[in-house]
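pasting for ref
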Amino acid sequence: MKEIALEILLCIIACHPSVLPLLFSAFTTGRVPLPGRYAQQKGLLIDVGTALAPGAVSELSLGGKYLFLLAGPDPARLSGAFGSVFTGGLDDVLSTGEFSKESLTAIARLRLEELKERTERQLSFTLSFGEKETEALAAQYSRERGAAALGSAAEGLYKAMSEEKLRRSLGPVNAALVCGEKGLLIEYEGPEIQGIIIPRSPETAASAAELSAVKEELSGITGLENVKEYVLSLEDNFNMQRLRKERGLKAETPSMHMIFTGNPGTGKTTVARIVARYLKAMGALSGGQLVEVTRADLVGQYVGHTAPLTQKALQSAMGGVLFIDEAYSLYRGRDDSFGLEAIDALVKGMEDHRDKLVVILAGYSREMEEFLTANSGLRSRFPNIIEFPDYTPEELWDITVSIASGMGYKLDESCKRPLIKYYTHQQISGDPRVNGNGRMARNRVEAAVIACSRRNMKAGDQERDLELLLPEDFGLEPVPETNLWEGM
Protein backbone atom coordinates (compact mmCIF):
# COMPACT_ATOMS: atom_id res chain seq x y z
CA MET A 1 0.00 0.00 0.00
CA LYS A 2 1.36 3.35 -1.00
CA GLU A 3 1.65 5.60 2.04
CA ILE A 4 -0.01 9.00 1.88
CA ALA A 5 2.35 11.56 3.39
CA LEU A 6 0.90 14.43 5.41
CA GLU A 7 3.11 17.48 5.69
CA ILE A 8 2.04 20.12 8.20
CA LEU A 9 3.94 23.40 8.01
CA LEU A 10 1.87 25.58 10.30
CA CYS A 11 -0.56 24.87 13.10
CA ILE A 12 -2.65 27.57 14.74
CA ILE A 13 -3.92 26.88 18.24
CA ALA A 14 -7.06 28.93 17.63
CA CYS A 15 -8.54 26.15 15.46
CA HIS A 16 -11.71 24.15 16.02
CA PRO A 17 -11.44 21.95 19.14
CA SER A 18 -12.15 18.83 17.07
CA VAL A 19 -8.86 19.36 15.19
CA LEU A 20 -6.68 19.32 18.32
CA PRO A 21 -6.84 15.51 18.86
CA LEU A 22 -5.76 14.98 15.26
CA LEU A 23 -2.75 17.24 15.72
CA PHE A 24 -1.93 15.55 19.02
CA SER A 25 -1.88 12.15 17.31
CA ALA A 26 0.22 13.45 14.42
CA PHE A 27 2.88 14.90 16.72
CA THR A 28 3.00 12.01 19.21
CA THR A 29 2.54 8.93 16.99
CA GLY A 30 3.28 10.15 13.48
CA ARG A 31 -0.14 8.96 12.35
CA VAL A 32 -3.60 10.49 12.04
CA PRO A 33 -6.56 8.08 12.37
CA LEU A 34 -9.43 8.52 9.92
CA PRO A 35 -13.14 8.03 10.76
CA GLY A 36 -13.51 5.45 7.92
CA ARG A 37 -11.73 3.80 4.99
CA TYR A 38 -10.49 6.08 2.24
CA ALA A 39 -8.85 5.62 -1.15
CA GLN A 40 -6.95 8.12 -3.23
CA GLN A 41 -8.64 9.03 -6.49
CA LYS A 42 -7.39 11.89 -8.67
CA GLY A 43 -5.51 13.41 -5.77
CA LEU A 44 -8.47 13.27 -3.36
CA LEU A 45 -9.35 10.93 -0.50
CA ILE A 46 -12.71 9.29 -1.18
CA ASP A 47 -14.69 7.43 1.48
CA VAL A 48 -15.06 3.86 0.15
CA GLY A 49 -16.85 2.41 3.18
CA THR A 50 -16.51 -1.40 3.25
CA ALA A 51 -15.87 -1.77 -0.48
CA LEU A 52 -12.76 -3.53 -1.64
CA ALA A 53 -10.67 -0.73 -3.04
CA PRO A 54 -6.96 -0.97 -3.83
CA GLY A 55 -4.84 1.28 -1.62
CA ALA A 56 -7.64 1.99 0.89
CA VAL A 57 -6.36 3.34 4.21
CA SER A 58 -7.88 4.04 7.63
CA GLU A 59 -5.13 6.40 8.78
CA LEU A 60 -2.69 8.91 7.41
CA SER A 61 1.03 8.45 7.87
CA LEU A 62 3.41 11.36 8.08
CA GLY A 63 5.88 9.38 6.03
CA GLY A 64 8.90 10.52 7.98
CA LYS A 65 8.18 14.20 7.44
CA TYR A 66 9.08 16.77 10.06
CA LEU A 67 6.36 18.83 11.71
CA PHE A 68 6.88 22.46 12.68
CA LEU A 69 4.52 24.10 15.15
CA LEU A 70 4.58 27.88 15.15
CA ALA A 71 3.32 29.36 18.41
CA GLY A 72 3.18 32.72 20.11
CA PRO A 73 5.46 34.07 22.82
CA ASP A 74 3.73 32.18 25.65
CA PRO A 75 4.68 28.45 25.74
CA ALA A 76 1.99 27.84 28.37
CA ARG A 77 -0.66 28.23 25.67
CA LEU A 78 0.62 25.03 24.04
CA SER A 79 0.18 23.08 27.24
CA GLY A 80 -3.24 24.56 27.74
CA ALA A 81 -4.33 23.52 24.25
CA PHE A 82 -2.66 20.10 23.88
CA GLY A 83 -1.62 19.05 27.38
CA SER A 84 1.75 18.53 29.04
CA VAL A 85 2.25 15.10 27.44
CA PHE A 86 2.21 16.74 24.04
CA THR A 87 4.60 19.56 24.88
CA GLY A 88 6.90 17.16 26.74
CA GLY A 89 7.20 15.03 23.62
CA LEU A 90 8.45 17.83 21.38
CA ASP A 91 12.01 17.21 20.23
CA ASP A 92 13.15 20.82 20.11
CA VAL A 93 11.73 24.14 21.24
CA LEU A 94 13.27 27.14 19.55
CA SER A 95 12.65 30.68 20.75
CA THR A 96 13.29 33.75 18.65
CA GLY A 97 14.70 36.83 20.31
CA GLU A 98 14.18 40.53 19.76
CA PHE A 99 15.57 42.17 16.63
CA SER A 100 18.65 44.22 17.34
CA LYS A 101 19.03 47.65 15.81
CA GLU A 102 21.76 46.28 13.58
CA SER A 103 19.52 43.44 12.38
CA LEU A 104 16.67 45.80 11.55
CA THR A 105 19.04 48.11 9.69
CA ALA A 106 20.35 45.13 7.71
CA ILE A 107 16.81 44.05 6.83
CA ALA A 108 15.91 47.61 5.82
CA ARG A 109 19.00 47.85 3.62
CA LEU A 110 18.08 44.55 1.95
CA ARG A 111 14.53 45.78 1.28
CA LEU A 112 15.82 49.03 -0.22
CA GLU A 113 18.30 47.18 -2.42
CA GLU A 114 15.45 44.99 -3.65
CA LEU A 115 13.38 48.14 -4.23
CA LYS A 116 16.23 49.76 -6.14
CA GLU A 117 16.67 46.73 -8.40
CA ARG A 118 12.92 46.45 -8.98
CA THR A 119 12.45 50.11 -9.89
CA GLU A 120 15.38 49.96 -12.34
CA ARG A 121 14.05 46.79 -13.96
CA GLN A 122 10.34 47.63 -14.14
CA LEU A 123 10.13 51.44 -14.02
CA SER A 124 13.47 52.51 -15.53
CA PHE A 125 14.05 54.65 -12.42
CA THR A 126 17.55 54.93 -10.98
CA LEU A 127 16.95 55.05 -7.22
CA SER A 128 19.53 56.16 -4.68
CA PHE A 129 19.40 56.21 -0.89
CA GLY A 130 21.69 56.69 2.08
CA GLU A 131 22.17 55.46 5.63
CA LYS A 132 19.61 57.88 7.09
CA GLU A 133 16.96 56.57 4.73
CA THR A 134 17.85 53.00 5.68
CA GLU A 135 17.45 53.81 9.37
CA ALA A 136 14.15 55.57 8.67
CA LEU A 137 12.79 52.43 7.03
CA ALA A 138 14.08 50.31 9.92
CA ALA A 139 12.11 52.58 12.29
CA GLN A 140 8.88 51.22 10.77
CA TYR A 141 9.37 48.09 12.90
CA SER A 142 7.30 47.49 16.01
CA ARG A 143 6.62 44.39 18.06
CA GLU A 144 3.01 44.50 17.03
CA ARG A 145 3.62 44.73 13.26
CA GLY A 146 6.93 42.87 13.10
CA ALA A 147 9.66 43.13 10.50
CA ALA A 148 7.04 42.67 7.80
CA ALA A 149 6.27 46.37 8.24
CA LEU A 150 9.58 47.17 6.52
CA GLY A 151 8.55 45.21 3.45
CA SER A 152 5.11 46.87 3.47
CA ALA A 153 6.68 50.33 3.60
CA ALA A 154 9.05 49.47 0.74
CA GLU A 155 6.09 48.17 -1.26
CA GLY A 156 4.30 51.45 -0.58
CA LEU A 157 7.27 53.35 -2.00
CA TYR A 158 7.23 51.21 -5.15
CA LYS A 159 3.49 51.74 -5.66
CA ALA A 160 3.92 55.49 -5.24
CA MET A 161 6.64 55.57 -7.89
CA SER A 162 4.57 53.38 -10.21
CA GLU A 163 1.61 55.75 -9.93
CA GLU A 164 3.88 58.73 -10.59
CA LYS A 165 5.29 57.06 -13.69
CA LEU A 166 1.82 56.37 -15.08
CA ARG A 167 0.46 59.79 -14.15
CA ARG A 168 3.41 61.67 -15.66
CA SER A 169 4.20 59.20 -18.48
CA LEU A 170 7.80 59.27 -17.28
CA GLY A 171 10.68 57.65 -19.07
CA PRO A 172 14.03 56.84 -17.44
CA VAL A 173 14.63 59.23 -14.56
CA ASN A 174 16.86 59.57 -11.52
CA ALA A 175 15.12 59.38 -8.15
CA ALA A 176 16.48 59.80 -4.65
CA LEU A 177 15.02 58.56 -1.38
CA VAL A 178 15.37 61.37 1.16
CA CYS A 179 14.63 61.33 4.89
CA GLY A 180 12.50 64.39 5.59
CA GLU A 181 10.78 65.67 8.70
CA LYS A 182 7.51 63.87 7.91
CA GLY A 183 9.03 60.64 6.63
CA LEU A 184 10.62 59.20 3.50
CA LEU A 185 10.39 61.52 0.51
CA ILE A 186 11.04 60.53 -3.09
CA GLU A 187 12.65 63.37 -5.00
CA TYR A 188 12.81 63.14 -8.77
CA GLU A 189 15.20 64.74 -11.21
CA GLY A 190 13.40 67.77 -12.57
CA PRO A 191 11.58 70.45 -10.56
CA GLU A 192 8.28 69.83 -12.34
CA ILE A 193 7.87 66.45 -10.62
CA GLN A 194 6.51 66.48 -7.09
CA GLY A 195 7.83 64.29 -4.32
CA ILE A 196 5.90 61.52 -2.59
CA ILE A 197 5.90 61.15 1.18
CA ILE A 198 5.68 57.86 3.04
CA PRO A 199 5.09 58.71 6.76
CA ARG A 200 7.45 57.33 9.36
CA SER A 201 4.66 56.16 11.62
CA PRO A 202 2.02 53.58 10.67
CA GLU A 203 -0.58 56.32 10.90
CA THR A 204 -1.51 57.35 7.37
CA ALA A 205 -1.62 60.93 6.22
CA ALA A 206 -5.37 60.59 5.70
CA SER A 207 -6.02 59.53 9.30
CA ALA A 208 -3.69 62.26 10.58
CA ALA A 209 -5.63 64.86 8.62
CA GLU A 210 -8.93 63.47 9.89
CA LEU A 211 -7.64 63.50 13.46
CA SER A 212 -6.61 67.12 13.11
CA ALA A 213 -9.97 68.05 11.58
CA VAL A 214 -11.90 66.35 14.38
CA LYS A 215 -9.84 68.12 17.04
CA GLU A 216 -10.43 71.44 15.33
CA GLU A 217 -14.17 70.79 15.21
CA LEU A 218 -14.16 69.84 18.89
CA SER A 219 -12.26 72.97 19.89
CA GLY A 220 -14.76 75.06 17.93
CA ILE A 221 -17.64 74.00 20.17
CA THR A 222 -18.70 76.72 22.58
CA GLY A 223 -18.09 75.95 26.27
CA LEU A 224 -17.93 72.35 27.56
CA GLU A 225 -14.26 72.68 28.51
CA ASN A 226 -14.34 69.68 30.88
CA VAL A 227 -16.04 67.55 28.23
CA LYS A 228 -13.44 68.52 25.62
CA GLU A 229 -10.62 67.71 28.01
CA TYR A 230 -12.05 64.26 28.66
CA VAL A 231 -12.51 63.48 24.95
CA LEU A 232 -8.93 64.49 24.16
CA SER A 233 -7.66 62.29 27.01
CA LEU A 234 -9.02 59.23 25.18
CA GLU A 235 -6.24 59.51 22.60
CA ASP A 236 -3.52 59.77 25.24
CA ASN A 237 -4.72 56.63 27.01
CA PHE A 238 -5.19 54.68 23.78
CA ASN A 239 -1.74 55.61 22.44
CA MET A 240 -0.08 54.77 25.76
CA GLN A 241 -1.62 51.30 25.82
CA ARG A 242 -0.58 50.76 22.21
CA LEU A 243 2.96 51.85 23.03
CA ARG A 244 3.08 49.44 25.99
CA LYS A 245 1.91 46.63 23.73
CA GLU A 246 4.58 47.42 21.14
CA ARG A 247 7.23 47.25 23.86
CA GLY A 248 6.01 43.91 25.15
CA LEU A 249 4.42 45.27 28.33
CA LYS A 250 1.00 44.30 29.62
CA ALA A 251 -1.61 46.48 27.95
CA GLU A 252 -5.29 46.67 28.73
CA THR A 253 -7.80 47.86 26.17
CA PRO A 254 -9.34 50.87 27.91
CA SER A 255 -13.11 50.85 28.29
CA MET A 256 -14.52 53.71 26.23
CA HIS A 257 -18.21 53.21 26.97
CA MET A 258 -19.63 56.49 28.25
CA ILE A 259 -22.66 58.10 29.83
CA PHE A 260 -23.49 61.68 28.90
CA THR A 261 -25.71 63.37 31.47
CA GLY A 262 -27.27 66.80 31.28
CA ASN A 263 -30.25 68.81 30.12
CA PRO A 264 -31.43 68.94 26.48
CA GLY A 265 -29.51 71.16 24.11
CA THR A 266 -26.19 70.92 25.94
CA GLY A 267 -24.40 69.26 23.00
CA LYS A 268 -24.54 65.58 23.95
CA THR A 269 -25.47 64.30 20.49
CA THR A 270 -23.02 66.68 18.77
CA VAL A 271 -20.14 65.51 20.97
CA ALA A 272 -21.15 61.85 20.46
CA ARG A 273 -20.82 62.27 16.68
CA ILE A 274 -17.40 63.86 17.12
CA VAL A 275 -16.32 61.07 19.49
CA ALA A 276 -17.26 58.44 16.88
CA ARG A 277 -15.10 60.12 14.23
CA TYR A 278 -12.33 60.79 16.76
CA LEU A 279 -12.08 57.14 17.81
CA LYS A 280 -11.88 56.06 14.18
CA ALA A 281 -9.22 58.65 13.32
CA MET A 282 -6.97 57.55 16.18
CA GLY A 283 -7.41 53.85 15.31
CA ALA A 284 -9.61 52.70 18.18
CA LEU A 285 -12.61 51.95 15.92
CA SER A 286 -12.72 50.70 12.35
CA GLY A 287 -15.95 52.30 11.13
CA GLY A 288 -16.57 55.49 13.06
CA GLN A 289 -20.30 55.63 12.33
CA LEU A 290 -22.80 56.85 14.93
CA VAL A 291 -26.01 54.82 15.19
CA GLU A 292 -28.60 56.76 17.22
CA VAL A 293 -31.43 54.75 18.76
CA THR A 294 -34.15 55.15 21.38
CA ARG A 295 -36.33 52.76 23.37
CA ALA A 296 -38.59 52.20 20.36
CA ASP A 297 -35.64 50.80 18.39
CA LEU A 298 -34.59 48.34 21.13
CA VAL A 299 -37.73 47.20 22.94
CA GLY A 300 -40.14 44.86 21.14
CA GLN A 301 -43.89 44.66 21.34
CA TYR A 302 -44.20 40.98 22.18
CA VAL A 303 -42.27 38.21 23.91
CA GLY A 304 -39.11 37.22 22.05
CA HIS A 305 -39.05 40.41 19.97
CA THR A 306 -36.75 42.57 22.13
CA ALA A 307 -33.48 40.62 22.04
CA PRO A 308 -33.35 40.44 18.20
CA LEU A 309 -34.10 44.16 17.98
CA THR A 310 -31.28 44.99 20.39
CA GLN A 311 -28.89 42.64 18.58
CA LYS A 312 -29.77 44.31 15.28
CA ALA A 313 -28.93 47.73 16.73
CA LEU A 314 -25.63 46.42 18.11
CA GLN A 315 -24.67 44.85 14.78
CA SER A 316 -25.43 48.05 12.87
CA ALA A 317 -23.07 49.94 15.18
CA MET A 318 -20.14 47.46 14.95
CA GLY A 319 -16.94 49.39 14.34
CA GLY A 320 -18.59 52.59 15.54
CA VAL A 321 -20.68 54.11 18.32
CA LEU A 322 -24.16 53.11 19.48
CA PHE A 323 -25.78 56.23 20.92
CA ILE A 324 -28.90 55.67 23.04
CA ASP A 325 -30.68 58.94 23.75
CA GLU A 326 -32.96 59.12 26.79
CA ALA A 327 -31.51 55.77 27.82
CA TYR A 328 -33.33 55.89 31.16
CA SER A 329 -36.57 55.18 29.25
CA LEU A 330 -35.35 51.58 28.85
CA TYR A 331 -35.98 51.04 32.56
CA ARG A 332 -39.51 51.70 33.80
CA GLY A 333 -39.29 49.65 36.96
CA ARG A 334 -38.92 45.99 37.84
CA ASP A 335 -42.22 45.16 36.12
CA ASP A 336 -40.92 46.34 32.73
CA SER A 337 -39.75 42.91 31.54
CA PHE A 338 -39.22 44.05 27.94
CA GLY A 339 -37.03 46.95 28.98
CA LEU A 340 -34.98 44.74 31.31
CA GLU A 341 -34.55 42.23 28.48
CA ALA A 342 -33.18 44.99 26.24
CA ILE A 343 -30.74 46.07 28.97
CA ASP A 344 -29.56 42.48 29.49
CA ALA A 345 -29.01 42.03 25.75
CA LEU A 346 -27.17 45.36 25.63
CA VAL A 347 -24.83 44.42 28.49
CA LYS A 348 -24.05 41.05 26.90
CA GLY A 349 -23.39 42.63 23.51
CA MET A 350 -21.04 45.17 25.06
CA GLU A 351 -19.06 42.37 26.70
CA ASP A 352 -18.96 40.17 23.58
CA HIS A 353 -17.83 43.01 21.31
CA ARG A 354 -15.86 45.22 23.66
CA ASP A 355 -13.08 45.80 21.11
CA LYS A 356 -15.43 46.56 18.22
CA LEU A 357 -18.05 48.80 19.71
CA VAL A 358 -18.48 51.84 21.95
CA VAL A 359 -21.84 52.50 23.62
CA ILE A 360 -22.80 56.00 24.74
CA LEU A 361 -25.91 56.50 26.87
CA ALA A 362 -27.45 59.95 27.25
CA GLY A 363 -30.10 61.39 29.54
CA TYR A 364 -30.94 63.53 32.55
CA SER A 365 -28.53 63.17 35.48
CA ARG A 366 -31.02 61.98 38.10
CA GLU A 367 -32.86 59.56 35.82
CA MET A 368 -29.57 58.06 34.55
CA GLU A 369 -28.45 57.41 38.13
CA GLU A 370 -31.62 55.39 38.70
CA PHE A 371 -31.20 53.65 35.35
CA LEU A 372 -27.78 52.28 36.37
CA THR A 373 -29.48 50.21 39.09
CA ALA A 374 -31.51 48.25 36.51
CA ASN A 375 -28.74 45.69 35.92
CA SER A 376 -25.90 44.71 38.25
CA GLY A 377 -23.37 44.89 35.42
CA LEU A 378 -24.38 48.28 34.04
CA ARG A 379 -22.42 50.63 36.26
CA SER A 380 -19.16 48.68 35.96
CA ARG A 381 -19.36 48.83 32.17
CA PHE A 382 -19.75 52.59 32.12
CA PRO A 383 -16.80 53.95 34.10
CA ASN A 384 -16.91 57.23 32.20
CA ILE A 385 -19.80 59.48 33.27
CA ILE A 386 -19.51 62.96 31.78
CA GLU A 387 -21.74 65.80 32.94
CA PHE A 388 -22.78 68.38 30.33
CA PRO A 389 -23.50 71.65 32.18
CA ASP A 390 -26.10 74.20 31.14
CA TYR A 391 -24.72 77.00 28.98
CA THR A 392 -24.13 80.40 30.50
CA PRO A 393 -25.90 83.40 28.89
CA GLU A 394 -22.59 84.53 27.37
CA GLU A 395 -22.04 81.07 25.86
CA LEU A 396 -25.58 81.09 24.48
CA TRP A 397 -24.76 84.42 22.80
CA ASP A 398 -21.71 82.83 21.15
CA ILE A 399 -23.85 79.87 20.06
CA THR A 400 -26.43 82.26 18.61
CA VAL A 401 -23.76 84.03 16.58
CA SER A 402 -22.42 80.68 15.35
CA ILE A 403 -25.85 79.38 14.34
CA ALA A 404 -26.67 82.61 12.52
CA SER A 405 -23.32 82.53 10.71
CA GLY A 406 -23.98 78.97 9.61
CA MET A 407 -27.27 80.14 8.11
CA GLY A 408 -25.58 83.02 6.28
CA TYR A 409 -26.55 85.82 8.68
CA LYS A 410 -24.74 88.10 11.08
CA LEU A 411 -25.99 89.82 14.22
CA ASP A 412 -25.87 93.54 14.75
CA GLU A 413 -23.78 94.43 17.80
CA SER A 414 -26.86 95.95 19.39
CA CYS A 415 -28.31 92.43 19.67
CA LYS A 416 -25.75 91.28 22.21
CA ARG A 417 -26.94 93.03 25.38
CA PRO A 418 -30.68 92.29 25.02
CA LEU A 419 -30.04 88.66 24.01
CA ILE A 420 -27.69 88.03 26.96
CA LYS A 421 -30.30 89.52 29.32
CA TYR A 422 -33.00 87.43 27.70
CA TYR A 423 -30.95 84.24 28.12
CA THR A 424 -30.15 85.19 31.71
CA HIS A 425 -33.85 85.56 32.45
CA GLN A 426 -34.68 82.22 30.81
CA GLN A 427 -31.87 80.28 32.50
CA ILE A 428 -32.73 81.66 35.96
CA SER A 429 -36.51 81.62 35.90
CA GLY A 430 -37.20 78.92 33.35
CA ASP A 431 -36.80 75.15 33.35
CA PRO A 432 -33.63 74.22 31.35
CA ARG A 433 -35.35 70.98 30.33
CA VAL A 434 -37.99 73.09 28.59
CA ASN A 435 -35.81 75.96 27.46
CA GLY A 436 -33.37 73.61 25.80
CA ASN A 437 -30.08 75.55 26.11
CA GLY A 438 -28.61 75.44 22.61
CA ARG A 439 -31.97 74.49 21.15
CA MET A 440 -33.39 77.68 22.62
CA ALA A 441 -30.69 79.67 20.80
CA ARG A 442 -31.45 77.89 17.51
CA ASN A 443 -35.17 78.52 17.88
CA ARG A 444 -34.51 82.22 18.50
CA VAL A 445 -32.31 82.49 15.40
CA GLU A 446 -34.79 80.67 13.18
CA ALA A 447 -37.60 82.95 14.38
CA ALA A 448 -35.37 86.00 13.85
CA VAL A 449 -34.58 84.93 10.28
CA ILE A 450 -38.31 84.79 9.47
CA ALA A 451 -38.85 88.22 11.08
CA CYS A 452 -35.86 89.60 9.16
CA SER A 453 -37.37 88.37 5.88
CA ARG A 454 -40.67 90.05 6.65
CA ARG A 455 -38.94 93.28 7.61
CA ASN A 456 -36.88 93.39 4.44
CA MET A 457 -39.84 92.63 2.22
CA LYS A 458 -41.57 95.74 3.59
CA ALA A 459 -38.47 97.93 3.22
CA GLY A 460 -37.27 99.60 0.06
CA ASP A 461 -34.36 98.31 -2.00
CA GLN A 462 -31.97 100.87 -0.52
CA GLU A 463 -32.91 100.00 3.05
CA ARG A 464 -32.62 96.25 2.76
CA ASP A 465 -29.77 94.31 4.35
CA LEU A 466 -30.39 90.64 3.64
CA GLU A 467 -27.68 89.41 6.03
CA LEU A 468 -28.09 91.53 9.15
CA LEU A 469 -30.28 90.51 12.11
CA LEU A 470 -31.48 93.31 14.40
CA PRO A 471 -32.82 93.20 18.00
CA GLU A 472 -36.34 93.75 16.70
CA ASP A 473 -36.00 90.54 14.64
CA PHE A 474 -35.55 88.64 17.90
CA GLY A 475 -38.70 90.28 19.28
CA LEU A 476 -36.81 91.98 22.09
CA GLU A 477 -37.57 95.47 23.34
CA PRO A 478 -35.85 97.33 26.20
CA VAL A 479 -38.02 97.51 29.32
CA PRO A 480 -37.38 98.62 32.91
CA GLU A 481 -34.71 96.64 34.71
CA THR A 482 -37.26 95.04 37.03
CA ASN A 483 -38.82 93.25 34.08
CA LEU A 484 -35.55 92.52 32.27
CA TRP A 485 -36.28 91.96 28.58
CA GLU A 486 -39.45 90.60 27.15
CA GLY A 487 -39.58 88.27 24.18
CA MET A 488 -42.40 88.24 21.70
